[in-house]
Each structure stands twice: as C-alpha cells, then as structure tokens.
Amino acid sequence: MASSSIFVVTLLAILVVFTGSCSAQLSKDYYSKSCPKVLSTVRSVVQSAVSKERRMGASLLRLHFHDCFVHGCDGSILLDDTPSFQGEKTARPNAGSVRGYNVIDDIKSKVEQVCPGVVSCADIVAIAARDSVAILGGPQWDVKLGRRDSKTASLSAANNGQLPGPTSNLSNLINRFRAKGLSEQDMVALSGTHTIGQARCTTFRDRIYNENNIDSLFAKTRQRNCPKINGTGDNNLAPLDLQTPNCFDNYYFKNLINKKGLLHSDQVLFNGGSSDSFVRKYSQDQKSFFSDLVNAMIKMGDIEPLTGSAGEIRKNCARVN
C-alpha cells in the first residue's frame, strides 16, 4: 500500500512538471537573442498586406483561430496535402474560406533571410494575428512565443466539429470554447473580432431570410447581395460589422443589441441568454472589451503548443522539412 502511494505521488509530480513545461517555454522574449528582428519583420509584411487589402487583417486573425482550435497552435493548418496525409486546408470550415496563406509564406521568407531556421510558422501566425488587430485600431499585446511546427495535419480533426460554425447555437459555442480551456467570457470577447472581416452569402442566407430576431431593414439590405436561392451568389460577401467594417472597435456588440448580427452564431450572443450581459458590457465599454480580448487571445495562443524537442521549425510553412 505504501509503495503504491509513493508511486502515485511520484507520477503526479511528473505530470505537474510535464504539464507546466509547455506554457513555461512560451515567452514574449523567446526570440530576443536568437532573432531580435522577428517582430519588426513580421509587422512590416503584415502592414503592407493590410494596406493593400484591409480584409487581410481579419483573414490573418482567423487563420490563427482555425489553427489553434485543431490540435493546438502548431501551424498544421498551413500544410499542403501530401501522399501520406490530407491537410486541413480543404476541411469544410476552411475550404474557400480561410485566407492569408500567401502572406504567411511571404513573412516566413523575410524572416528566414534575417534568421534562418529559428522562427516557427506557428509563431509567425500568432504574431501576424496580433499585428492585424493592432494595425486596424485594436489593442496591442505581447505575444508569447516559442511554439514549434507540427509534422502532420488532420483533415478529420478539422472536420469533426472542433471549429464552431456560423449556425452554432449558444450552448454549442460555450461548449466548444470550454473544450479548449476558454470561458464563456473569452468566447464572447473572441467573437468580437467579427468587428472586422466579411462573410459569404452561404453562411448567412438562412438568417436574413428565415430568422425573426433580426432588424428588418438590415435583413433587406443584406438580401440585395445575397439571393434566396441556394447556389446563386453563394460567394458574395458582406461585412460582419455593418457600421465600421475595417476598424477594430466595439461596434460589433452594438450591432448585436440592435439585432444586426450577420451570422446566426453572432446574434445568439444577444438573444436572451447567459452571454447577454457580456455583449451589453462590451457595447458600452470598448476598453473593457479590448482588455478581455487580449486575455482571451493569449489564452487561445496557449492551446496545446509544441515546445522543446517536439515538432520542428519548418523552412517552408506549407510542407514539413
């Protein structure tokens, strides 16, 4: 009995050390000596890309989200298909929807010139997401770094519902974020990133034609560019935030209070449920929204990183070394 207890205690001690090691190896100063110019290099490329197309800021932010929610923030979403595995790019939540791969490739190329073989693609995605938010008027924060890149990707994992879809109800959203260690408040704050970006007609068609908790004039406005018939205008775009589509602010939440959420999964955040109080708070207090968003982004960036000797530092973000 005593030896059994010693074994359990020892095992618990090992687990504590092991589970604490991942986050401990992520640090805002991770590249301070090995690649001191990484942040300015990434920022320069992101600034150029967003200047050419404001929507790209939202796309880079979404890329980070879709990467982290499938097997952690490991850059797996960037991998092209190979004979040995199917990547995540063609998964239902990503195909024809996730963008910005070319910008990440451009950043990687520039970073490799400055410090070859040092900075991971996963970290580049995380930095680019932060820079996109800041460039478009949102908050600035220190990104924790030190992630390594996965050597594989999983189409099935990206398709199995880990990524919340545009038709998700509130309980579904809460549960999927909670499964990743994110609270309901984190979920609402992260949803506020829909203050930038655009969505395809196919993702909001049902809402603007069939739902009741929607402002009628807003619905009619959106219907002009999104025909009711499936297969017609499916890829036509509409801004997620009607008021300030290219500025990172708290108008997304003001829109929800006025029943002008574009996606079903947007409006469920303010529809008589438990998240109403967060939406009301953020609609009135942008500073509070920014503060909670920063905390949530840092938590999301901590999801299952590969550190230490796990994974690799890819030379090309689209394929393993």
UniProtKB/TrEMBL annotation:
Cofactor: heme b; Ca(2+)
PROSITE patterns: PEROXIDASE_1, PEROXIDASE_2, PEROXIDASE_4
Annotated site (Transition state stabilizer): R62
One Gene Ontology biological process: hydrogen peroxide catabolic process
Entry annotation: catalytic residues: H66 (proton acceptor)
Tree of life domain: Eukaryota
Every Plant heme peroxidase family profile domain range: 25-321
Entry GO terms, CC: extracellular region
Signal peptide: 1-24
Enzyme class: oxidoreductase
Binding positions for substrate per the UniProt entry: P164
Residues annotated as binding Ca(2+) 1: D67, V70, G72, D74, S76, E88
Family note: Belongs to the peroxidase family. Ascorbate peroxidase subfamily. Belongs to the peroxidase family. Classical plant (class III) peroxidase subfamily.
Purpose of the protein: Removal of H(2)O(2), oxidation of toxic reductants, biosynthesis and degradation of lignin, suberization, auxin catabolism, response to environmental stresses such as wounding, pathogen attack and oxidative stress. These functions might be dependent on each isozyme/isoform in each plant tissue.
Name of the protein in question: Peroxidase
Naturally occurring in which organism (per UniProt): Ziziphus jujuba var. spinosa
